[in-house]
Specification:
With 233 residues, the chain is of the alpha/beta class. 34% of the residues lie in helices and 29% in strands. The strands form two sheets. The chain has a six-stranded mixed sheet, sandwiched between helices. It has a four-stranded antiparallel sheet with strand order 2-1-4-5, covered by helices on one side.
Length: 233
């Protein structure tokens, strides 16, 4: 269950993009402060250009802030080198994308095992953890199938299983229902609800107000700053 322990802490995070001549192109983030307690579910919302994708990339250690401090699970990550950030991503962060990003030549279970392969987990342990994830997301009956043989909802469930197999500290999802019909999207969101109820920290970038209403907390960005930070009742 959720606790008061902080898993994500951002202080004065700025991200500036520069032109080749060194002048400022855009200030995507202008000094964001954010604390995320372990086990919380958050929706990050905002208009195009508000900074939500930049914030997601920094939270996911895919990008570095120009300035500021980022502490993830008690580790200062803002100034780490690329190799260290890659290791942190593999161990601490699970990613779910709108487009699934499954490897079409691999079976569903092989796709889920990919992060464990790069972590050099023993094949027997990889298989066991993969089977556990397939059971969790309701895909045990799809072993041996390739992504092209799955529905959109099943592909997204496989992507969620892949994100969870490393037992991450946080699960980041970028428009996870954007390519799904309404009913299938609701099924996937129910899975996120279940994961949250079991204590996983979930952060969803979304433009969908209905998705936001399912989260404990909704953060709206505007012009690179947190405009509103609302807790749902």
């Amino acid at each position: 269950m959720p606790t008061t322990e902080t898993v994500v802490k951002l202080r004065k995070i700025e991200r500036v993009y520069y032109k080749p001549d060194g002048t400022v192109l855009v200030k995507a983030l202008r000094g964001v402060d954010l604390d995320v307690p372990r086990g919380q579910s958050i929706a990050i919302m905002g208009a195009s250009g508000s900074g939500k994708s930049t914030l997601m990339n920094i939270l996911g250690c895919l990008d570095k802030p120009t300035s500021g401090e980022y502490t993830l699970d008690n580790n200062e990550v803002a100034l780490q080198d690329d190799q260290t950030l890659s290791k942190i991503r593999g161990q601490e962060i699970g990613f779910v994308f709108q487009s699934f990003n499954l490897i079409p030549q691999l079976t569903v279970e092989e796709n889920i095992e990919v992060p464990l392969y790069y972590q050099q987990v023993h094949p027997k342990d990889r298989r066991q953890r993969t089977l556990e994830m397939l059971e969790l997301v309701g895909l045990s009956n799809r072993i041996g199938h390739k992504p092209g043989e799955l529905s959109g909802g099943q592909q997204q469930r496989a992507a969620i299983a892949r994100a969870l197999v490393t037992k991450p500290s946080i699960l980041l999802a970028d428009e996870p229902t954007g390519n799904l019909d309404t009913q299938t999207g609701n099924d996937v969101l129910e899975l996120f609800d279940t994961l949250h109820s079991e204590g996983l920290t979930t952060i969803l970038v979304t433009h969908d107000e209905d998705v936001g209403k399912r989260c404990q907390r909704v953060i709206h960005l505007k012009d690179g700053l947190i405009d509103t930070d609302i807790f749902n009742t």
